[in-house]
Write a structure and sequence with these properties.
Length: 235
């Protein structure tokens, strides 16, 4: 995750010996392994990608061989295994043994688990280890998403709001860019490359402009949200 300089990482300070199946023992083992893995050398692997042309179609496969496991030997929760493919070089030709055509349909993406959502937030630069949980709780408290059976699902209100933003040309309000920019600006303060006054002034100007857009489209926004909410209601 992103270090906001607000909290030190959890790290072991002394040995702990408890019952093997006790949750506290397992938690301590995870903390120690995470700490030691962070202090270890990177794992090293060699990867190969093969692109084959068959008629007018292109097929891609790949393989990798782990050369040095290093931290992987300490942290067994991460799965990174060797996948071998035949040795090939550019321009090689081969004759397929069998050709099978499968009929199928594309499937919609599955709903996000908490771990998947946190990974996406981290990739987009949203939140830190100390604030990600608060961001997730906020969208639940506001009724934009629900969380059940380990998965997040948008509510009719959340779907209607995003659809209305897109229809009115305000899609940036439903994208991660605004929050990510704020996170970057706060990191600039922590690094000393920007002052608090500069960041607050820039953010205030940006959000005032956005608020002006919302106010100017207020009636349309309410109308769009209402229309999408009515469409979501069971008939």
């Amino acid at each position: 995750g992103h270090d906001d300089k607000a909290h030190p990482p959890i790290h072991p300070t002394k040995p702990y010996i408890g019952p093997p199946n006790d949750p506290s023992t397992k938690l301590y083992d995870l903390i120690v392994r995470t700490f030691l893995a962070c202090m270890s050398k990177d794992a090293v692997a060699a990867s190969t990608t093969v692109v084959a042309v068959f008629g007018e179609e292109r097929f891609t496969t790949g393989g990798q061989s782990i050369l040095e496991r290093n931290w992987l030997d300490i942290y067994p929760y991460e799965r990174w295994n060797s996948t071998r493919i035949p040795t090939m070089k550019l321009g090689d030709r081969f004759q397929p043994d069998t050709v099978i055509l499968h009929d199928g349909q594309t499937q919609p993406p599955v709903q996000l688990s908490e771990a998947q959502l946190i990974t996406l937030m981290d990739q987009q630069g949203i939140g830190t280890d100390a604030t990600i949980a608060t961001h997730i709780k906020t969208i639940q408290d506001r009724g934009y998403v629900t969380y059940a059976n380990g998965k997040f699902a948008p509510t009719p209100l959340g779907t209607a709001l995003v659809a209305a933003y897109e229809e009115l040309g305000l899609s940036q309000l439903a994208q991660p860019n605004l929050r990510a920019q704020m996170e970057m600006a706060m990191n600039d303060i922590a690094r000393g490359t920007a002052t608090r006054q500069q960041v607050v002034a820039a953010a205030s100007a940006q959000y005032k402009a956005i608020l002006g857009q919302i106010i100017s489209h207020q009636d349309q926004l309410i109308s769009c949200v209402s229309r999408y909410l009515r469409a979501e209601q069971p008939r």
